[in-house]
Amino acid sequence: MSQLSFADLLQRRLVFTVGKGGVGRTTVTLGIALEAARRGQRVLVVELEGARGLEMALAAQREQVHPPAWLDRIEYMMIDGRRALEEYLGLIIPVRRLLKTVFSSNVYQYFVAAAPGLKELMAIGKLWYEAEQRNPEDAAGASGAHQLVLVDGPATGHSLQYLRMPQAALEAFPTGLVHREAERVVGLLRDPEATGVVVTTLAEEMPANETFEMVRGLDALGMHTAMLVVNQVHHAPCTRAELDGLPVAAPRPLAVVPATRARSARTPANPEVLLSEIVARAHEEIGWAEINASHVQRLAAQINAPLVELPYLFNEEFGPDEVCRLGRTLAEQLDAVPPTAPRPRGGRK
Ligand SMILES: Nc1ncnc2c1ncn2[C@@H]1O[C@H](COP(=O)(O)OP(=O)(O)OP(=O)(O)O)[C@@H](O)[C@H]1O
Ligand SMILES: [Mg+2]
Q1: Minimal CA–CA distance to 302: which of 168, 222, 199, 169?
Q2: What element of type H or E holds 98?
Q3: Mutation test of ligand 1: which of 17, 23, 27, 55 has the most ligand atoms closer than 8 Å to its C-beta?
Q4: Helix (H) or strand (E) holding 46
Q5: What residues does each domain of the chain span?
Q6: Which ligand 1 atom minimizes the distance to the CA of 27?
Q7: Would you tell me which of 79, 143, 193, 309 could form a disulfide with 233, CB atoms 3.0–4.6 Å apart?
């Protein structure tokens, strides 16, 4: 398995986070951005049309009572394919009046609405442009340029749709302007030194299956899975034998609830009830830890990329501190692997 330090990841021009809906793509993207900024890097974080999660999560960071100064190194952009197309047309048709006529024509409106994949193609083109604008030397930001573009991609299928478009354009237009532009974008996406995909998942049946599908899709596009992030991993707080030794009645059977479970509304009335609640929760947590461990093993066996496990954080509220903490954990785990040793399985920092 190839090794990748956090600094290696930050050397890329473009890092694209993908994964099933709700697994933590936004958290991972922003966590990486926060840690990169804390280490002195200027980053541009991007989300694609229709999503607002990243913008909100970044706003929550900025609205803290004492936001860290290095938050200023993170710039946000929402990329809308239609706007990107208009920007692009503005570059190739510099006559303003002509451009206005094009934009207001029915043919243009129809074309933009109906052309399959056009908006996705333009959005990826804009990403390419932003990645090319980076200035790797300018940590101080004198030029205002970012050093890395981090994209909070949409859920699996839609991300593949975006990433596939430049290749499709390349095949559809064997020569000419579109071909040349698409060739440059495909070149960036396929260059493992320039572009890295961070595949994010939960260690559960459905997300793991979707992850295999995603990695196969990336392979088919000739793209590099830079790392696999397994989010919300539960760890057993103790053994079943230890629980069995406690003087409590057998725990009530529990329905297995999703990882984003609601908090129990029951209030234990006395210490015995409290203890039995704790034991029940511990059994539940052991159950989740076992499920997670088996899927982590499956993922590690089938996906040839460095694997990072982020813990499930049991906090009343999941906010700016938690995102920051997970970003730091991700970086520390990548950096903890000595260059020649295989990565230990299941270890948490
Ligand atoms: N490690 C974690 N521990 C506990 N909760 C977490 C963790 N990571 C994420 N979450 C919870 O999961 C929620 C969803 O995370 P996030 O918004 O990053 O997912 P997403 O993949 O971007 O979702 P969407 O598909 O809606 O864009 C967060 O708001 C948070 O409540
Ligand atoms: Mg999101």
Answers
A1: 199
A2: helix 96-104
A3: 27
A4: strand 43-48
A5: 6-235+295-336
A6: 18
A7: 309
C-alpha span between 251 and 268 (Å, rounded): 14
Q: Which pLDDT score is estimated for 141?
A: 58
Instruction: List, run by run, the mean pLDDT of 10-residue segments along the chain (349 residues).
Output: 85 96 98 97 93 97 95 95 86 81 80 79 92 72 79 95 92 87 94 96 98 97 97 95 80 53 55 86 96 98 97 93 98 80 45
Compute, in angstroms, the gap from residue 229 CA to the centroid of ligand 1.
13
6-235+295-336 is a CATH 3.40.50.300 domain? yes
Q: Model-level pTM?
A: 0.87
For residue 15 the two structure tokens come to 């890092």
What pLDDT, on a 0 to 100 scale, did the predictor assign at position 348?
40
CA gap 229, 201 in Å, rounded: 6
Residue 30 near residue 324, CB atoms below 8 Å? no
